[in-house]
Structure formats: structure tokens, C-alpha cells
Amino acid sequence: MDIKKREDATPPSTSRKMLFAQIIEMTGMDEEVVLELISLEWVSPASTADGHYLFEARDLYRLRKLSRLCNDLEITAAGGSIIVDLMERVEQLEARIEEMSKLI
């Protein structure tokens, strides 16, 4: 993958999506780590016709959370991704409990 080529690309001005280079800059993560997470489908950016990745705000949020965990706990991205997945699952379950308690 040619990172230089991707850094030169810009999304349309009305787009809310972020490019690979922007994600790297905003998260401080290594390019290889983000590419590994994409290959594992932990984040699933859209791809343009010319092969550029376009990330959603949700992807940025998850990657920032992962980056903080990895840095704070000194763990690998693979381990951190499992923790982030579990944290999101807990949040979903807590939201369901909240909804169900309103019905009682």
C-alpha cells in the first residue's frame, strides 16, 4: 500500500469522513497497527474507487479509545481491541437494562 499516495487524496469538502492519514494523525497510532485492525475487520472504513480509505467518526472514537488503553495499560492492539469490544458490549447491555427498567 502506498501511504504517500493516500495522504495526498482529499475527500469532498462536504464529506464527514476522514482519510487514513487523518486517522493516523488524530490517533497517534502506527500505520501498520491501523492496517492490521482493518484487515481484522475491527474497523471497516469505506474504500473509494481509487482505493483510499474513508473512516467514520465512530471509527475514530474506537481507535482513540484503543490507543489510550494500549498506552495506559501497555498492552498490544489485539488485546486492547478485545477490551474495547467488551466495554462496548457492556454499554449496550446497560442501555438495554435502562430501557427495560423504564417499562416496569
Can you walk through the features of this model?
With 104 residues, the protein is mainly alpha-helical. It is built from five helices and three strands; from the N terminus they run αβααββαα. It has a three-stranded antiparallel beta sheet with strand order 1-3-2. A hairpin with a 5-residue loop joins β2 and β3 (53-55). α4 packs across α5 (77-103). Mean pLDDT is 89; it is low at 1-5.
Ordered list of secondary-structure elements with their pairings:
Elements: H1 3-8, E1 18-19, H2 20-27, H3 31-39, E2 46-47, E3 53-55, H4 57-73, H5 77-103
Antiparallel strand pairs: 1-3, 2-3
Uncertain segments? 1-5
Number of strand segments: 3
Any idea what the radius of gyration is?
16 Å
Beta-strand share of residues:
5-15%
What is the residue-mean pLDDT, rounded to a whole number? 89
Which structural class matches the secondary elements?
mainly alpha
| Biggest beta sheet attributes | 3 strands, antiparallel
The dominant shape is globular
SSE ordering: HEHHEEHH
